[in-house]
Amino acid sequence: MAGGFHPLRVTEVQPLTEDAVAVTFAVPPELRPAYRYTAGQHLILRRVTSDQDGTPQEIRRTYSICAPAPGPDGPATLRVGIRRVQGGEFSTFAHKELAPGDLLDVMTPTGRFTLVPRPGRYAAVVGGSGITPVLSLVSTLLAEEPDAEFCLVRSDRTVASAMFLDEVAELKDRHPRRLHLVQVLTREERQAGLEAGRLDEDRLTALLPALLPVGEVAGWFLCGPHRLIEQSAGALRRLGVDRSRVHQEIFHVDSEPPPGDGTLADRGTAGAFGADDDAGAGGHTVTAVLGGRSGSWVGQPGETALETVLRHRPDAPYACRGGVCGTCRALLVSGTVRMDRNYALEPDELDAGHVLACQSHPTSPVVELDFDR
Q1: Residue 274: its pLDDT value, please?
Q2: Where are the beta strands (DSSP E) in 128-201?
Q3: What is the distance between the alpha carbons of residues 266 and 356, in angstroms, rounded to a whole number?
Q4: Are 278 and 366 in contact (CB under 8 A)?
Q5: DSSP 97
Q6: How far is 14 from 352, CA to CA, in rounded Å?
Q7: What's the pLDDT tens digit per position in 297-343?
Q8: Angular region, 310: left φ>0, alpha ψ -120 to 50, beta rest
Q9: How far apart are alpha carbons 161 and 78 in whole angstroms?
Q10: In angstroms, rounded to a whole number, what is the distance separating the alpha carbons of residues 137 and 198?
Q11: What distances in angstroms separate CA 327 from CA 66, 107, 336, one per listed residue?
Q12: Which of these, 126, 93, 86, 322, lies nearest to 221 by C-alpha position?
């Protein structure tokens, strides 16, 4: 289960590009242990507004931490990258209204797109704002493991649109022999060959072996728009890379994003999960374990398991409600569900019985979920 929200004060809103900012929060000493994070994790930010009728409306969005992992006492500050998305209510607010001194509700860190620093070769293919968690991964790895190397292939539209350009350049200057950086620009014709233009499966299949010995890479990290992740994963399959070495996090900032703006996800599949039961004609019951407490409630027709739980337990974990961020991940203890879509769970998590509550429609008379496991 994800940790709770705490109001944190904004100390800086730093412009990165025309449409991206880095937001820094101060963490009080008493909360620093709770906000200790692993490189690659993210934060859920919450804002409460009112609709036209004055009814309170809660907006949650997930953004990756872009700073190195903190020490054992936890971080004094937290920094996330936010790219403005067309029609994105939260990202527009962050760009136009959020200012130093403001308080914003921030959930304790979560996420499984992480790396434990060990000796060896590592590599990443990132697109656009996908650089955000990878910046945390690279900076932490190179600082903590002197026998590690990292190859970073990043794709951006133009130099001007590239987030954290200076930070990546500083890392390259600090670790010239251990960080190999390849910058691909899709809308600037200043390059030729494999590193020019949009990265697709064929180009990546040719490019990656030219950069490093693919078979020796201990971990591949793919982060960015859905299409780039699919093409990158396809190239790695063609190159014989074992699936267990590939870690994916999808940033939905393409033309048809799922609900939410610029939220992120690990890639999985949708479908039916659990034993082969039939839903009863008289509705269904959802039992949920949350924070060590259990409750059972009758679901309404058509609603998801998360919607049923939230009507009685508003502290249930969620963020995007689009099958993207993975915050509502729960273990399906008994019963069956149909998930509309899943961009957040890896195959091993599905095999272990985990589901996304926001996408899970009960298909058996009783469904039992455990948010604590």
Answers
A1: 64
A2: 148-156, 179-185
A3: 12
A4: no
A5: T
A6: 41
A7: 999 999 999 999 999 999 899 888 888 888 999 999 999 999 998 88
A8: alpha
A9: 23
A10: 24
A11: 19, 11, 20
A12: 126
CA atoms of 261 and 164, how far apart (whole Å): 20
DSSP, collapsed to helix, strand or coil, labels residue 206 as: helix
CA dist., res. 232 & res. 201, Å (int): 6
Q: Tell me the three-class secondary structure of 35-87, residue by residue.
A: CCCCCCCEEEEEEEEECCCCCEEEEEEEEEECCCCCCCCCCCEEEEEEECCCC
What are the per-10-residue average pLDDT scores of the chain (373 residues)? 81 97 98 97 92 83 96 97 92 96 96 94 97 98 98 95 96 97 84 68 96 96 94 97 93 46 39 53 82 94 94 90 88 95 86 95 96 91
Per-residue model confidence (pLDDT) at position 137: 98
Residue with tokens 């273990």: 331
Task: For residue 32, give Cα distances in angstroms to 25, 27, 119, 268.
Answer: 12, 6, 29, 33
Domains of the chain, each with CATH number or no CATH: 5-107 (2.40.30.10), 120-265 (3.40.50.80), 271-370 (3.10.20.30)
Three-state DSSP at 266 gives coil
In the numeric block, the tokens 């990043």 are attached to 154
Integer Cα distance of 47 and 93 in angstroms: 10
Amino acid residing at 53: D
Could you report the per-residue pLDDT of 174-212, keeping only the tens digit for each?
999 999 999 999 887 655 555 667 899 999 999 999 999
For residue 41, which of 76, 94, 71, 80 has the smallest C-alpha distance? 80
Alpha-carbon gap, residue 364 to 334, rounded angstroms = 9
* Token pair listed for 247: 């870690």
Q: Are 9 and 26 in contact (CB under 8 A)?
A: yes
